[in-house]
Amino acid sequence: MKPKDDKKLASIERATYALVQESGLMPLTLAAIARAAGIATSTLYIYYPSKEALLDALYERAKSATFERLTRGAGTELAPKLRIRQIWLNMLNNRLDHPAEMVFQEQYVSSRFMSESNRELGKRFVREFDEVLEAGRRDHILKAVALPFLGACILGSVRETARLVAAGILPDDESTRTTGFQLCWDALKA
Amino acid sequence: MKPKDDKKLASIERATYALVQESGLMPLTLAAIARAAGIATSTLYIYYPSKEALLDALYERAKSATFERLTRGAGTELAPKLRIRQIWLNMLNNRLDHPAEMVFQEQYVSSRFMSESNRELGKRFVREFDEVLEAGRRDHILKAVALPFLGACILGSVRETARLVAAGILPDDESTRTTGFQLCWDALKA
Amino acid sequence: MKPKDDKKLASIERATYALVQESGLMPLTLAAIARAAGIATSTLYIYYPSKEALLDALYERAKSATFERLTRGAGTELAPKLRIRQIWLNMLNNRLDHPAEMVFQEQYVSSRFMSESNRELGKRFVREFDEVLEAGRRDHILKAVALPFLGACILGSVRETARLVAAGILPDDESTRTTGFQLCWDALKA
Amino acid sequence: MKPKDDKKLASIERATYALVQESGLMPLTLAAIARAAGIATSTLYIYYPSKEALLDALYERAKSATFERLTRGAGTELAPKLRIRQIWLNMLNNRLDHPAEMVFQEQYVSSRFMSESNRELGKRFVREFDEVLEAGRRDHILKAVALPFLGACILGSVRETARLVAAGILPDDESTRTTGFQLCWDALKA
DNA sequence: CATGAATGAGATTTCATTCAT
DNA sequence: AATGAATGAAATCTCATTCAT
């Protein structure tokens, strides 16, 4: 049961994300996915053995892609503030560029206890993230508080800023990014 | 003539919140709700004409209750910082005291276009909230940035802090509240 | 379980006939009957032990009332043609004056093998009717054909004439009755 | 790719007619139809989107088939009396050959306001029928009375004769047809 | 591979009937 | 007697999954 057609896989993926973003997981049916993907329902079973497997697989893919996007261009060669700023921007752009994928992930996590590998992946990002924060704290650039407080600030700031941009309340431009990060940084900095 | 039982309504409410918190909306069935509430499935139809109506009603109730809790004890008699602090605490406590209700709300919003009254209620809180921020900004206590940035900071901070407390990563005590709000305030203050 | 309130009985009767005339037996529910009769559903059980019993009882009453109306003023003192004419008119007026009751009867017979007493009552009318026809045939006033042919003519003529009057295609007046019966009589007469 | 099975459609049709003839519309369930048709209940939903749609579709089909049977072999090349006789026979045979279909139609009409196309079809037959009668009346072969009176005679005669044959009271033979039509003709003829 | 038909398990909904007041 | 609430059984309908082509 090795999938052959990558175009079909991609359209299944896109269809599912879009449907979940539109109306959530509650009314998500295989028939709807297949229809939106332009294939027959039974064809889904050539690519995935069950609905659960399909959603799990999409979730893993989304998580991996997200992880890759979040860490891009934020290597150790950058100064702490710049690194954090880069991650902040990555997180924001990720949310703005892939809203359906994000909604899918958030809806799905709360409805499934994560598979082991997913949990692992999540932890891996948190670990890398924490290392950055840890370094900044050690150098007295960031506040001397428990790491989770710092992480929470960043996540919260990104999430809400993204929500406002997506809702059209804030413009999707440089100034929003500058101001948004400025506030966040004031919360973090020592 | 037996009166429509308020205890039953409450247990339906509780059962639904709990089930959604446990596994989300996807596998939520009327049978499960009825079972958890200790009544027959058909009895649900005495209280609500359909599954959709039931969820809608619960959502409206949750939203109202939340609104009431958020604005409690944060009147205009307080100084801006204290008022904001009170709202911040209200928001945090609300999330920690009624996790199931919160999960239900968040899961449900994305799966339904909100009813007019809900939208109205949401706007009403935002308006009140914005007035507080507006006042603080006018007095040069808060940063001179667009209001949404300030609101976003508070919401984001509360949400993530609550998540960490609920997950057991941060303790549910005074120090968490003090530190959490401190970071938030540093982001906001002029 | 002796019914007390005749007004309630009557309103149950009326409600049921009306509902059946409006949309047939298929969607007829006790709740609908009770609502239309202005009482509670459970109150129906004070008057009838079950839905089936209720319908059976109404059917019997309708049949009796119909029987009484059909034979009224058509005694043996009349000449055969006048007697037949009277019965023809009775049948027509019965259909026009009690359409709901008629519809109920016709819908109901085909959905129930009749109870013994109902069958008996039906037969009683047919017997009396046949006697009239038999007499006319013996006197060479009616055609010398099997009685059912004669009965069929009368019934068919009445039923279709009534339908046309009810539909507004023919006027509900003396001329319709005269012409309608004239055709029928031409079919019957020797 | 399996084609939608015409045999299945036919057996659904047959099963429904038979069940309705047996006990009417009141206790007609999809489960019973499916059982009688030898398929799963859910399979019905492949062919019709709802119970109502199923019954509507069957009704339309029955009506069309009936129309076709009634007008067969009664073209304008026949003399008026023969044409009317042919239609009379068609009507009778139709009732005797397809009793279940007829019962279904009659039960169903009263429980549904007819769809536009059905109403149209009904009118089409009436129009054709009326033309025949009109012609006969113009030639002084039929009585000089309003057309509906003539139509009513024929319909009534057929309906009641068929009922008696179906009930075994009259034999299903040539003599019944001859006598039955004779009476009817005497009613119509000038 | 791909598909539309078919299905069984289960979800929602209805409803005659019973219960408690 | 009368009622509204409650319910179990059953009806309608849905949907993930399998089958046959």
TrEMBL record, chains A, B, C, D:
SUPFAM superfamilies: Homeodomain-like (SSF46689)
Keyword list, A-Z: DNA-binding
Gene3D superfamilies, sorted: Tetracycline Repressor, domain 2 (1.10.357.10)
DNA-binding feature ranges: 29-48
Pfam families according to UniProt: TetR_N
Keyword Oxidoreductase: no
Limits of the HTH tetR-type domain: 6-66
Record keyword DNA-binding present: yes
Highest taxon listed in the record's lineage: Bacteria
Stored InterPro entries: Homeodomain-like_sf, HTH-type_TetR-like_transc_reg, HTH_TetR
This protein's name: TetR family transcriptional regulator
Biological source species: Massilia frigida
